[in-house]
Structures are given as C-alpha cells and as structure tokens.
C-alpha cells in the first residue's frame, strides 16, 4: 500500500505522519470494523514533552497499537513518539513506549498498570462473554474495553473482539503482567500471597478488574 509523508495538522508542527489508507470513512460501523477502538475520530489532545499541547481528531488503532487521525480524507498515524509525553482520547490516557501506545488503566497500584489493546476477527455466530472482550452482532456494537457504544448496521464487515495485554511500569521498564508466574516474577517475595489470592478469587487475567484487585493487595 502506498505510503506518504504529511504534517499532522496545521497546529501540530514538528510531527510526521504516515498515511496508512487511501480512504477511510468516519461512520462508526466501518471505524470499528477496521479495528479502531473508538466509534469515531474524536477530538483529542497530544501533550508534548516540551510542555505544549496540540489538539486533533484522534483514534486508537488496535491493529498496530498506534494513534491515528484523519487529514484531508486520509488516515495518518503519529510518529516521532520520542517527542510525545501523553495522548488523551475520549477520556482515556495513552503513553508511548517503543513505537506503540499503551492505555494507562490505573496509577493507584504499586506500579502504574498499562495495556496494549489488540483485536482479532471472530465468526458472527460466536458470542464472547469474557470481560475485556467485545461481543458484536450485525446490528449492535458494544465495546466494554472503553465503554464506547454505537448502534449501526455492520453490512458485511467482520466482527472483532478486543483484548488487553497488561504491563506494569517500573521506572521506564515495562513488565508483563498477564499470568500468575509473571506477577510472581515481579513480586517474588509475595509468591505465597499471590498464589493464595488467585486461587481464592479465581483471578481471570483477561479481566482488568481481576488484575487490578490482585495488584491492589500487593501494594
């Protein structure tokens, strides 16, 4: 697919963006079906490390965990992540790390809990009930990762589920936090507490609330 280089928007001097699609409609059905987290490109803020803040219509791309925006009918993605501190979209906070954007889930635990959000297609006849995953049919879209909701007809688009991969931020290092063993690796001195809590509470590592509850007792 052809790639071009263009400015983000007039007010975003210093950004370089790469066009990923020649045409993208902003209707909620095609936005979600294409793997974007929010139902539309919504006004967001980009906080620079320099202290300045810029605004643009933004969305989170779950295909590559990057932040995209629309310019002149084309879909573009933020680069130069080393100059960006934080991105805010629809009340959610994202931070860049090694060329990807991580959603900040909570800072109330011992270490901030972050997540990369992925998607995968599923047959339309399959219903997914896991917390943190999306259940869709041809008429309704519900996304319990972001609490975004829209009611549009999906025509022939594939259904998608969304899933988070969790990480704890220790200084400037991200540590995987998606299983009992990964949590024990982070808190080796609390091994017994971790095992007992997971056993007693049947911790589901696909469920953000379960992961937060476990981390809270480890503070």
Structure description:
It is a single chain. Residues 1-26 and 126-157 have low confidence and may be disordered. The protein has helices at 28-33, 180-186, 191-201, 208-217, and strands at 5-6, 17-21, 42-48, 53-61, 66-71, 74-78, 84-89, 92-97, 100-106, 113-122, 135-136, 141-143, 148-150, 159-170, 173-176. The termini are far apart. Helices cover 16% and strands 40% of the residues. The chain is of the alpha+beta class and 219 residues long.
Task: Write a compact overview of the structure shown.
This protein is of the alpha+beta class and 219 residues long. The protein is built from four helices and 15 strands.
Task: Identify the notable features of this structure and list them briefly.
219 residues; alpha+beta; 2 domains; 12-stranded antiparallel beta sheet; 3-stranded antiparallel beta sheet; 4 helices; disordered N terminus
By DSSP (H or I, 4+ residues per run), the number of helices equals: 4
SSE pattern, N- to C-terminal: EEHEEEEEEEEEEEEEHHH
Largest sheet, in brief, is: 12 strands, antiparallel
The residue ranges in which pLDDT falls below 50 over 5 or more consecutive positions are 1-26, 126-157
Q: What is the percent of helical residues?
A: 10-25%
Please tell me the total number of domains: 2
Write down the overall mean pLDDT.
Answer: 78
Number of strands: 15
Backbone shape: globular
Judged by helices, strands and strand pairing, the structural class is: alpha+beta
End-to-end distance? 47 Å
Q: Taking Cα atoms only, what radius of gyration do you get, to the nearest Å?
A: 19 Å
Fraction of residues in β-strands: 35-45%
In spatial order, strands of the major sheet run: 1-2-6-5-4-3-7-8-9-10-14-15
């Amino acid at each position: 697919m052809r790639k071009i280089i263009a400015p983000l928007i007039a007010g975003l001097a210093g950004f370089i963006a790469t066009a990923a699609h020649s045409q993208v409609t902003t209707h909620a059905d095609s936005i979600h079906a294409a793997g974007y987290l929010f139902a539309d490109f919504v006004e967001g803020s980009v906080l620079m490390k320099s202290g300045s803040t810029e605004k643009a219509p933004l969305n989170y791309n779950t295909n590559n965990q990057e932040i995209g925006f629309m310019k002149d009918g084309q879909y573009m993605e933020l680069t130069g992540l080393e100059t960006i501190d934080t991105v805010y979209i629809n009340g959610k906070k994202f931070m860049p790390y090694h060329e990807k954007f991580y959603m900040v889930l909570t800072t109330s635990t011992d270490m901030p809990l972050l997540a990369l959000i992925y998607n995968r297609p599923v047959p339309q006849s399959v219903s997914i009930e896991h917390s943190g995953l999306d259940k869709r049919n041809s008429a309704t879209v519900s996304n319990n990762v972001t609490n975004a909701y829209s009611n549009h007809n999906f025509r022939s688009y594939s259904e998608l589920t969304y899933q988070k991969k969790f990480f704890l931020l220790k200084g400037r290092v991200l540590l995987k936090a998606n299983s009992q063993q990964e949590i024990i690796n982070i808190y080796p001195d609390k091994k017994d507490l971790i095992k007992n809590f997971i056993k007693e509470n049947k911790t589901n590592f696909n469920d953000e609330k379960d992961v937060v509850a476990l981390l809270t007792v480890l503070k």
